[in-house]
User: Which sequence fits this backbone?
């Protein structure tokens, strides 16, 4: 497992993420959710001040919601419906594959996104739940485990998986109409459409935050390299010269273009977040413009 | 045009290829990097997963430029030369046919097998000739195969005495032409004319052998004497024994200091008059056996009919002749004597005998002497004889006759005449010998002995002699129509010699007893022995070869330079510049690749 996880200063990142959650938030406001009563619009009628609709009175309805003015005008019992306000459910799926922690800056940015997502959900009173996933491995993390930063140990215990094996998102127990924040570098060999669909199961809404390192997107390889696979630690001799590097960069770009296209088709916010610079600088480039992360 | 390389050592430059590859790979020594995108690399570069090293080579422009540069540099260093269209490569090998080469024959074969292929630059168009160095040597081989040449040499038996190779080299140069290759193979270092190359294959040998022989009469016994010499530089011990017929003595040991000569002597043990002396063989066996027989000259029947005044010196002369019995004193089939000594009185002229030595003789001679210079003619009978002390009285002359050959003149007077009449020879002393001082001159006696030997040579009779190997043999035999051919018998081997091919007879080239017969009549009994002690001395034998320079000479004479060499150098410079540019400007390199990519 990635040794970078052992070197991370989790409390410091968590503290920084808490501060970030004051300035940035997950895109929860422009959608309807299900959950316990809270501050965000729910899918049904509720007791908020926001008018939603009229409908005829049916036996069993609360007579307090009868619109007496309308009865005076029409003689029919009409109910005035108000929007429900709920606490959205945020399910954070953290890809803990080796590639996520292959270089220190990327590892730090990924964990920063994880804590940001968690604290951002907490900040708005959402019910946050964290899943760790790595290929076939998946594990739900208790809140106290997450807050005590012991989740990293669970990730470390996981055996290496096959290189580029896709996480089994379809097997995760997502709740109805929850927001699924998928934090992953997406460096696995799977069709993006399937993964996005898996994230949208049970009428859920997906959000993909994709940390990346410039060492992956624009490497300066030239010569002979002994690549160590971040997933299974296997060694691979490669010679990379400019033509091959050019093709690699093109392939890398096409890989994420497919993810973007799949996300757009599924109306899923998708943002690639660089590991370079501060969090603010990184999210302002793509995450904020795309609505994947919003200003608080 | 076939291609040759003047400097094959230039091939070493090809080691630049692995060197460039090594430097290339070392320069690009693997860095260890963690990677999370290997699946992307695999997707675009599946070939390199299995054959990444080939791909490394395939995609590096500087590498290819450097490899091409190495190949061009190798080409230039090889000094390619194009063979001229015409001409056969002629290689003439003159083999030293002196007997000492027998000890190194195997070395010669091995060396030629290994050296000649390197000299032959024109495969399939080569002429190989091997001849012996002696002016009467044989042509050993003519063809185009080194294997056949060396196979021929396996049976080669050099047996000539020490001689100058100049005659053989001159013939060799004429056969090779000015551009041909002339090689002299010998066993010692020497200066060579005619642009010949030397291949010396000798080495010092501790040789002990018979160096000489003598057979003489002592007190009615025929005694042999041989000398044994240690030619080496260390003390040598050899066993030797004597064999006669089927019998042999027990071996005796003989120890000789370096350079020591020891004489062995003994008498001939049996009636046959033949003995063999055998020395323990060494690396040069030719002088380790000695065949000896009792020599005997052809009998020359003599008679004399001289007047009283000449009788005494004539008798003395007859007595001095070897194996010259007086006619009638021995049993013979001959009707006439072989030589008649007679006198001639010009005042009472008479006919001469058929073969005769005639002395002018008259009872009273004038007191005055012949005057004038004494001049001998260029004839073998009087060659190197000194007549300047001759004093002869003036007498009338023997009448001249057609066919007379004057051997000695004094002034206008012929003093000695060789007369040929009907194939018979007469030696005429045209002055009164008895009244002159001729009998006290050695030249006088020698002349008569020479004349007697001349008659012996022409006489058909048996004689015996110990000869050297290959020694020329003068033999008289019947030449009448219907005469049988000559037969040379050497041990168990007999060779028939047709009469039209017997002008030059030679003793065998291997030590042996032999005889020559015509029909059943034995003309000659002889032995052939190695006699050239210079050839038995291997102290100066050495190994040396200057054949290494021949390929270069051959290439220079038979080929022309590569006319494209300036272009190759220019291309090399361009490649170097391109390589430098590619290495110093990776972006342009990438651009080149992108334009090169399909």
Assistant:
């Amino acid at each position: 497992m990635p040794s970078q996880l052992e070197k991370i200063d989790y409390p410091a990142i968590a503290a920084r993420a808490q501060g970030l959650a004051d300035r940035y938030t997950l895109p929860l406001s422009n959608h309807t959710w299900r959950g316990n009563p809270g501050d965000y619009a729910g899918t049904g009628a509720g007791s908020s001040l926001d008018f939603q609709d009229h409908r005829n009175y049916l036996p069993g309805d609360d007579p307090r919601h009868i619109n007496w003015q309308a009865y005076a005008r029409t003689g029919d019992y009409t109910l005035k419906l108000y929007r429900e306000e709920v606490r959205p459910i945020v399910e954070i799926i953290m890809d803990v594959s080796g590639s996520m922690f292959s270089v220190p800056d990327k590892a730090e940015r990924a964990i920063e996104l994880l804590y940001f997502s968690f604290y951002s959900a907490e900040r708005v009173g959402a019910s946050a739940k964290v899943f760790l996933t790595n290929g076939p491995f998946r594990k739900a993390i208790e809140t106290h485990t997450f807050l005590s930063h012991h989740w990293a140990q669970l990730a470390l215990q996981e055996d290496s998986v096959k290189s580029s094996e896709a996480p089994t998102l379809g097997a995760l127990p997502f709740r109805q109409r929850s927001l699924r924040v998928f934090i992953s570098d997406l460096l696995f060999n799977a069709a993006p459409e399937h993964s996005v669909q898996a994230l949208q199961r049970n009428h859920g809404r997906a959000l993909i935050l994709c940390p990346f390192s410039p060492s992956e997107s624009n490497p300066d390889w030239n010569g002979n390299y002994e690549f160590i696979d971040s997933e299974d630690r296997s060694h691979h001799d490669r010679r990379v010269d400019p033509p091959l590097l050019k093709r690699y960069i093109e392939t890398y770009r096409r890989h994420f273009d497919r993810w973007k296209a799949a996300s757009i088709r599924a109306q899923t916010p998708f943002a690639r977040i660089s590991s370079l610079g501060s969090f603010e600088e990184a999210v302002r480039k793509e995450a904020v413009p795309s609505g994947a992360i919003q200003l608080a | 045009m076939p291609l040759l390389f003047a400097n094959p050592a230039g091939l070493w430059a090809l080691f630049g290829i692995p060197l460039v590859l090594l430097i290339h790979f070392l320069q690009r020594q693997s860095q260890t990097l963690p990677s999370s995108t290997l699946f992307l690399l695999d997707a675009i570069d599946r070939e390199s997963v299995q054959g990444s090293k080939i791909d490394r080579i395939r995609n590096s422009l500087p590498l290819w430029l450097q490899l091409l540069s190495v190949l061009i540099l190798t080409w230039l260093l090889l000094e390619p030369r194009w063979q001229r269209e015409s001409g056969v490569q002629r290689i003439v090998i003159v083999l030293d046919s002196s007997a000492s080469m027998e000890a190194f024959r195997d070395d010669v074969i091995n060396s030629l097998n290994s050296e000649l292929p390197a000299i032959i630059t024109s495969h399939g168009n080569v002429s190989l000739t091997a001849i012996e160095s002696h002016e009467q040597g044989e042509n050993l081989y003519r063809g185009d195969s080194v294997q056949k040449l060396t196979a021929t040499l396996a049976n080669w038996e050099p047996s000539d005495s020490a001689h100058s190779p100049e005659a053989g080299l001159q013939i060799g140069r004429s056969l090779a032409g000015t551009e041909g290759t002339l090689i002299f193979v010998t066993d010692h270092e020497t200066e060579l004319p005619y642009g010949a190359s030397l291949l010396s294959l000798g080495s010092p040998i501790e040789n002990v052998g018979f160096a000489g022989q003598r057979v003489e009469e002592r007190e009615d016994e025929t005694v042999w004497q041989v000398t044994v010499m240690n030619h080496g530089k260390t003390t040598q011990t050899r066993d030797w024994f004597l064999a006669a017929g089927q019998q042999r003595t027990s071996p005796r040991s003989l120890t000789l200091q370096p350079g020591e000569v020891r004489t062995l002597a003994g008498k001939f043990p049996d009636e046959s008059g033949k003995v063999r002396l055998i020395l323990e063989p060494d690396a040069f066996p030719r002088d380790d056996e000695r065949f000896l027989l009792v020599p005997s000259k052809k009998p020359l029947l003599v008679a004399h009919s001289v007047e009283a005044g000449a009788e005494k010196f004539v008798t003395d002369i007859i007595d001095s002749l070897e194996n010259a019995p007086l006619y009638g004193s021995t049993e013979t089939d001959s009707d006439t004597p072989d030589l008649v000594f007679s006198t001639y009185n010009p005042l009472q002229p008479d006919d001469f005998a058929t073969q005769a030595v005639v002395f002018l003789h008259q009872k009273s001679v004038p007191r005055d002497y012949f005057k004038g210079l004494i001049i001998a003619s260029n004839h073998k009978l009087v060659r190197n004889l000194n007549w300047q002390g001759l004093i002869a009285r003036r007498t009338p002359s023997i009448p001249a006759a057609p066919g007379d050959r004057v051997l000695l003149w004094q002034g206008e007077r012929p003093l000695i005449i060789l007369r040929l009449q009907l194939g018979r020879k007469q030696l005429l002393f045209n002055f009164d010998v008895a009244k002159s001082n001729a009998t006290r001159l050695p030249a006088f006696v020698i002349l008569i002995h020479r004349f007697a030997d001349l008659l012996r040579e022409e006489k058909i009779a048996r004689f015996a002699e110990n000869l050297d190997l290959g020694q020329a043999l003068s033999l008289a035999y019947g030449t009448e129509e219907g005469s049988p051919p000559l037969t040379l018998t050497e041990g168990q081997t007999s060779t028939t010699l047709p009469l039209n091919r017997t002008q030059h007879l030679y003793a065998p080239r291997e030590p042996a007893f032999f005889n020559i017969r015509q029909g059943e009549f034995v003309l000659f009994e002889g032995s052939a022995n190695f006699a050239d002690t210079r050839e038995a001395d291997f102290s100066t034998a050495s190994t040396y070869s200057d054949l290494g320079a021949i390929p270069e000479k051959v290439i220079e004479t038979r080929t022309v330079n590569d006319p494209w060499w300036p272009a190759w150098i220019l291309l090399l410079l361009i490649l170097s510049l391109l390589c430098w540019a590619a290495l110093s400007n990776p972006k342009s390199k990438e651009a080149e690749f992108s334009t090169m990519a399909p």
Remarks:
- The mean pLDDT of chain B is 85.
- The interface with chain A takes residues 25, 27-41, 43-45, 48-49, 52-53, 55-56, 59-60, 586, 589-590, 593-594, 597 of chain B (CB under 8 Å).
- The longest strand of chain B covers residues 208-218.
